[in-house]
Amino acid sequence: MKLYHSPTSPYARKVRMLLLETGMDADVEKQIGSGSPVDPGQAPLAENPLGKVPVLTLTDGTAIYDSRVICRYLDDRAKAGLYPAEPKLWSVLTLEALADGILDAALLMVYETRIRPEDLRYTPWIEGQWDKIRRAADSLNADWMPVLSGPMTMGHIATACALGYLDFRHADRNWRLGNDALAKWFASFAARSSFVATTPPAG
Ligand SMILES: N[C@@H](CCC(=O)N[C@@H](CS)C(=O)NCC(=O)O)C(=O)O
Protein backbone atom coordinates (compact mmCIF):
# COMPACT_ATOMS: atom_id res chain seq x y z
CA MET A 1 0.00 0.00 0.00
CA LYS A 2 1.10 3.58 -0.61
CA LEU A 3 0.11 6.72 1.29
CA TYR A 4 0.26 10.03 -0.56
CA HIS A 5 0.65 12.71 2.05
CA SER A 6 2.24 15.98 3.02
CA PRO A 7 4.32 16.17 6.23
CA THR A 8 2.30 19.22 7.34
CA SER A 9 -1.15 17.86 6.47
CA PRO A 10 -3.18 17.29 9.65
CA TYR A 11 -5.55 14.99 7.74
CA ALA A 12 -2.60 12.84 6.70
CA ARG A 13 -1.38 12.98 10.28
CA LYS A 14 -4.55 11.17 11.37
CA VAL A 15 -3.65 8.31 9.05
CA ARG A 16 0.03 8.31 10.01
CA MET A 17 -0.88 8.22 13.72
CA LEU A 18 -3.29 5.35 13.12
CA LEU A 19 -0.57 3.41 11.27
CA LEU A 20 1.82 3.86 14.19
CA GLU A 21 -0.81 3.08 16.82
CA THR A 22 -1.86 -0.14 15.06
CA GLY A 23 1.66 -1.37 14.20
CA MET A 24 0.98 -1.16 10.45
CA ASP A 25 3.36 1.67 9.62
CA ALA A 26 5.91 -0.55 7.86
CA ASP A 27 3.18 -1.96 5.57
CA VAL A 28 2.59 1.40 3.92
CA GLU A 29 5.05 3.20 1.64
CA LYS A 30 4.95 7.00 2.07
CA GLN A 31 4.98 9.34 -0.88
CA ILE A 32 4.88 13.13 -0.82
CA GLY A 33 1.89 14.42 -2.78
CA SER A 34 1.06 17.92 -1.70
CA GLY A 35 -0.55 20.67 -3.74
CA SER A 36 -2.96 23.55 -3.29
CA PRO A 37 -6.23 24.60 -4.95
CA VAL A 38 -4.35 27.00 -7.25
CA ASP A 39 -1.36 24.75 -7.89
CA PRO A 40 -1.88 20.98 -7.73
CA GLY A 41 1.93 20.58 -7.64
CA GLN A 42 2.66 16.97 -6.67
CA ALA A 43 -0.98 16.21 -5.79
CA PRO A 44 -1.99 12.67 -6.81
CA LEU A 45 -4.60 13.82 -9.36
CA ALA A 46 -4.82 10.45 -11.09
CA GLU A 47 -5.68 8.81 -7.77
CA ASN A 48 -7.90 11.58 -6.36
CA PRO A 49 -9.50 14.01 -8.82
CA LEU A 50 -10.05 16.42 -5.92
CA GLY A 51 -6.26 16.87 -5.74
CA LYS A 52 -6.19 16.41 -1.98
CA VAL A 53 -4.11 14.27 0.36
CA PRO A 54 -4.18 11.86 2.06
CA VAL A 55 -4.81 9.16 -0.52
CA LEU A 56 -4.14 5.47 0.13
CA THR A 57 -3.55 3.18 -2.82
CA LEU A 58 -3.99 -0.54 -2.32
CA THR A 59 -1.85 -3.26 -3.88
CA ASP A 60 -4.39 -3.72 -6.69
CA GLY A 61 -4.20 0.01 -7.51
CA THR A 62 -7.52 0.97 -5.89
CA ALA A 63 -7.37 4.49 -4.44
CA ILE A 64 -9.09 5.32 -1.15
CA TYR A 65 -9.73 8.85 0.13
CA ASP A 66 -10.46 10.97 2.22
CA SER A 67 -8.85 10.64 5.69
CA ARG A 68 -12.06 9.37 7.32
CA VAL A 69 -12.47 6.62 4.73
CA ILE A 70 -8.77 5.68 4.86
CA CYS A 71 -8.80 5.51 8.67
CA ARG A 72 -11.93 3.40 8.68
CA TYR A 73 -10.41 1.06 6.09
CA LEU A 74 -7.09 0.66 7.94
CA ASP A 75 -8.79 0.23 11.32
CA ASP A 76 -10.97 -2.50 9.83
CA ARG A 77 -7.92 -4.16 8.31
CA ALA A 78 -6.00 -4.02 11.62
CA LYS A 79 -9.07 -5.00 13.67
CA ALA A 80 -7.89 -2.26 16.04
CA GLY A 81 -11.33 -1.13 17.24
CA LEU A 82 -10.61 2.58 16.87
CA TYR A 83 -14.13 2.71 15.44
CA PRO A 84 -16.16 0.78 18.01
CA ALA A 85 -19.40 -1.05 17.29
CA GLU A 86 -22.78 0.71 17.37
CA PRO A 87 -24.11 2.55 19.29
CA LYS A 88 -20.72 4.02 20.41
CA LEU A 89 -19.74 4.32 16.77
CA TRP A 90 -22.03 7.30 16.24
CA SER A 91 -20.39 9.46 18.89
CA VAL A 92 -16.92 8.53 17.62
CA LEU A 93 -17.85 9.47 14.05
CA THR A 94 -19.42 12.71 15.27
CA LEU A 95 -16.31 13.57 17.29
CA GLU A 96 -14.14 12.87 14.25
CA ALA A 97 -16.43 15.07 12.14
CA LEU A 98 -16.15 17.87 14.70
CA ALA A 99 -12.34 17.61 14.71
CA ASP A 100 -12.21 17.48 10.91
CA GLY A 101 -14.51 20.51 10.81
CA ILE A 102 -11.95 22.40 12.90
CA LEU A 103 -9.33 21.39 10.35
CA ASP A 104 -11.49 22.44 7.40
CA ALA A 105 -11.96 25.93 8.87
CA ALA A 106 -8.33 26.23 9.99
CA LEU A 107 -7.02 25.20 6.57
CA LEU A 108 -9.34 27.66 4.79
CA MET A 109 -7.89 30.40 6.99
CA VAL A 110 -4.37 29.38 5.99
CA TYR A 111 -5.25 29.31 2.28
CA GLU A 112 -6.96 32.69 2.62
CA THR A 113 -3.81 34.37 3.88
CA ARG A 114 -1.22 32.32 1.98
CA ILE A 115 -2.87 31.98 -1.39
CA ARG A 116 -5.39 34.79 -1.87
CA PRO A 117 -3.90 38.17 -2.85
CA GLU A 118 -4.17 40.66 0.01
CA ASP A 119 -6.56 43.04 -1.77
CA LEU A 120 -9.04 40.18 -2.32
CA ARG A 121 -9.21 39.06 1.29
CA TYR A 122 -12.42 39.41 3.28
CA THR A 123 -11.80 39.66 7.01
CA PRO A 124 -15.36 38.78 8.15
CA TRP A 125 -15.06 35.50 6.24
CA ILE A 126 -11.74 34.68 7.97
CA GLU A 127 -13.20 35.60 11.36
CA GLY A 128 -16.27 33.49 10.57
CA GLN A 129 -13.97 30.48 10.12
CA TRP A 130 -12.34 31.21 13.46
CA ASP A 131 -15.78 31.48 15.09
CA LYS A 132 -16.48 27.93 13.92
CA ILE A 133 -13.20 26.74 15.47
CA ARG A 134 -13.83 28.64 18.69
CA ARG A 135 -17.31 27.14 19.07
CA ALA A 136 -15.99 23.67 18.25
CA ALA A 137 -13.16 23.96 20.81
CA ASP A 138 -15.64 25.19 23.42
CA SER A 139 -17.89 22.22 22.65
CA LEU A 140 -14.99 19.76 22.92
CA ASN A 141 -14.25 21.25 26.34
CA ALA A 142 -17.85 21.38 27.57
CA ASP A 143 -19.44 18.32 25.96
CA TRP A 144 -16.82 15.83 24.88
CA MET A 145 -14.56 15.31 27.88
CA PRO A 146 -16.44 12.16 29.01
CA VAL A 147 -15.67 10.57 25.62
CA LEU A 148 -12.13 11.95 25.40
CA SER A 149 -11.41 10.63 28.91
CA GLY A 150 -12.42 7.11 27.81
CA PRO A 151 -10.60 4.48 25.71
CA MET A 152 -8.78 5.78 22.63
CA THR A 153 -10.80 5.94 19.42
CA MET A 154 -10.31 7.60 16.06
CA GLY A 155 -12.17 10.57 17.57
CA HIS A 156 -9.29 11.05 20.02
CA ILE A 157 -6.67 10.91 17.26
CA ALA A 158 -8.62 13.34 15.05
CA THR A 159 -9.10 15.75 17.97
CA ALA A 160 -5.39 15.70 18.78
CA CYS A 161 -4.51 16.31 15.12
CA ALA A 162 -6.95 19.25 15.01
CA LEU A 163 -5.60 20.87 18.18
CA GLY A 164 -2.03 20.22 17.05
CA TYR A 165 -2.81 21.99 13.78
CA LEU A 166 -4.23 24.99 15.65
CA ASP A 167 -0.97 25.20 17.59
CA PHE A 168 1.00 24.82 14.34
CA ARG A 169 -0.81 27.42 12.21
CA HIS A 170 -2.96 29.54 14.55
CA ALA A 171 -1.02 29.65 17.83
CA ASP A 172 -1.70 33.40 18.15
CA ARG A 173 -5.45 32.72 18.49
CA ASN A 174 -5.06 30.67 21.72
CA TRP A 175 -7.75 27.96 21.55
CA ARG A 176 -6.84 27.03 25.16
CA LEU A 177 -8.40 30.22 26.57
CA GLY A 178 -11.36 29.11 28.73
CA ASN A 179 -10.84 25.46 27.71
CA ASP A 180 -8.80 24.16 30.63
CA ALA A 181 -10.09 20.58 30.60
CA LEU A 182 -9.42 20.22 26.88
CA ALA A 183 -5.96 21.77 27.23
CA LYS A 184 -5.13 19.33 30.03
CA TRP A 185 -6.37 16.36 27.98
CA PHE A 186 -4.33 17.50 24.97
CA ALA A 187 -1.15 17.98 27.01
CA SER A 188 -1.36 14.36 28.09
CA PHE A 189 -2.43 12.88 24.72
CA ALA A 190 0.26 14.84 22.85
CA ALA A 191 2.93 12.87 24.72
CA ARG A 192 2.01 9.71 22.77
CA SER A 193 4.90 8.57 20.61
CA SER A 194 2.61 8.43 17.52
CA PHE A 195 1.81 12.12 17.98
CA VAL A 196 5.42 13.12 18.64
CA ALA A 197 6.67 11.10 15.64
CA THR A 198 4.25 12.90 13.29
CA THR A 199 5.06 16.46 14.40
CA PRO A 200 4.96 18.70 11.30
CA PRO A 201 8.24 20.31 10.23
CA ALA A 202 8.41 24.09 10.69
CA GLY A 203 7.36 26.14 7.67
N1 LIG B 1 -11.65 15.95 3.78
C1 LIG B 1 -10.32 15.68 3.34
C2 LIG B 1 -9.49 16.96 3.38
C3 LIG B 1 -8.07 16.76 2.81
C4 LIG B 1 -7.39 18.10 2.53
O1 LIG B 1 -8.00 19.17 2.41
N2 LIG B 1 -6.05 18.04 2.40
C5 LIG B 1 -5.28 19.22 2.07
C6 LIG B 1 -3.91 19.16 2.71
S1 LIG B 1 -3.98 19.44 4.43
C7 LIG B 1 -5.05 19.24 0.56
O2 LIG B 1 -4.67 18.25 -0.01
N3 LIG B 1 -5.30 20.41 -0.07
C8 LIG B 1 -5.07 20.59 -1.46
C9 LIG B 1 -6.27 21.21 -2.15
O3 LIG B 1 -7.28 21.50 -1.49
O4 LIG B 1 -6.17 21.40 -3.36
C10 LIG B 1 -9.69 14.58 4.20
O5 LIG B 1 -10.16 14.38 5.33
O6 LIG B 1 -8.79 13.86 3.73
Describe, in plain words, how this protein is organized in 3D:
There is one protein chain. This protein has 203 residues and is α+β, with helices and mostly antiparallel strands. The chain has eight helices and four strands; from the N terminus they run E-H-E-E-E-H-H-H-H-H-H-H. The protein has a four-stranded mixed sheet with strand order 2-1-3-4. Helix 3 runs antiparallel to helix 4 (123-143) and helix 4 (123-143) packs across helix 7. The radius of gyration is 17 Å and the shape is globular. It starts with a strand and ends in a 6-residue tail after the last helix. The mean pLDDT is 97. The structure holds glutathione (GSH). Residues 6, 9, 11, 35-37, 51-54, 66-68, 100, 107 line the site of glutathione.
Task: Provide mean pLDDT, rounded.
Answer: 97
Helix proportion range:
40-55%
SS strand fraction: 5-15%
Bound molecules: glutathione
Structural class: alpha+beta
Sheet with the most strands, sense and barrel status: 4 strands, mixed
Number of strands: 4
- Uncertain runs are none
Shape: globular
Number of helices: 8
Our measurement of the CA-to-CA distance between the termini, rounded to an integer number of angstroms, reads 28 Å
Using only C-alpha atoms, the radius of gyration works out to 17 Å
Strand order of the largest sheet: 2-1-3-4
Order of helices and strands: EHEEEHHHHHHH
